[in-house]
């Protein structure tokens, strides 16, 4: 299944170029399980081949992620949480989303605040689903868009650079992405802990 999906992604980008990148990255952020870990590295490979522009690839990927995220945000904004949970339990299996993953994204948003919409763009699973709780919490849409686009820009640039760097061998990175994801999670948790510790020290200082 994953091999078929990868082949479909590659074929679409190879034939449609930027339009294919935009469609795939938008669908990924709109809760459709299309791995950006295939879309962007292959696009970076095409940059190396002189078929695409690196800057255009990165911006296209980030803008597409924003558009897809706004769709997911709208679902969270206009639907009740109970309705979302029912939909997740009934149809989530078709988009590889279950209640546990949705609730985890919700906990991340409530625990770390609105800025998690930026950091979550670099995290596995949560990056796709964080837009739902953001909409549910009625987060300011301009702030949501800024955080989402900024995080997506970094993620798109990183993945495209990997494809550019490895060239025709870009697929050798696939087995390492799960490990890399958890490394990012660990670094993110460490940074949050350091930030909270810093805030607590400032609070004690002034009060």
If you had to describe this structure to a student in words, what would you say it looks like?
Helix content is 77%, strand content 0%. The chain is an all-alpha fold and 207 residues long. It has one domain (2-172). Helix 1 (2-16) packs across helix 2 (18-29), helix 1 (2-16) crosses helix 3 (36-48) and helix 2 packs antiparallel against helix 3 (36-48). The radius of gyration is 18 Å and the shape is globular.
SSE map:
Elements: H1 2-16, H2 18-29, H3 36-48, H4 54-78, H5 81-91, H6 99-112, H7 116-119, H8 126-129, H9 131-136, H10 141-166, H11 177-206
Helix pairs in contact: 1-2, 1-3, 2-3, 2-4, 3-4, 3-10, 4-10
What is shown here, in short?
The protein has 207 residues and is mostly helical.
Descriptors for this entry?
207 residues; mainly alpha; 77% helix; globular; disordered C terminus
């Amino acid at each position: 299944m994953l091999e078929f999906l990868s082949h479909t992604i590659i074929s679409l980008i190879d034939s449609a170029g930027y339009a294919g990148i935009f469609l795939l990255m938008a669908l990924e952020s709109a809760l459709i399980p299309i791995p950006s870990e295939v879309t962007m590295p292959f696009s970076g490979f095409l940059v190396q081949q002189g078929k695409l522009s690196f800057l255009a690839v990165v911006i296209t990927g980030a803008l597409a992620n924003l558009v897809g995220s706004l769709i997911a945000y709208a679902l969270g904004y206009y639907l009740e949480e109970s309705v979302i949970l029912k939909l997740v339990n009934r149809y989530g299996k078709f988009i590889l989303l279950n209640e546990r993953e949705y609730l985890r994204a919700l906990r991340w948003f409530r625990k770390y605040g609105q800025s998690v919409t930026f950091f979550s763009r670099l995290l596995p699973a949560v990056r796709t689903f964080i837009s739902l709780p953001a909409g549910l919490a009625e987060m300011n849409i301009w702030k949501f868009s800024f955080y989402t686009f900024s995080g997506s820009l970094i993620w798109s640039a990183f993945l495209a650079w990997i494809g550019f760097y490895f060239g025709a061998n870009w697929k050798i990175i696939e087995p390492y992405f799960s490990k890399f994801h958890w490394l990012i999670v660990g670094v993110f948790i460490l940074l949050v802990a350091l930030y909270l510790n810093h805030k607590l020290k400032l609070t004690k200082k002034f009060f």
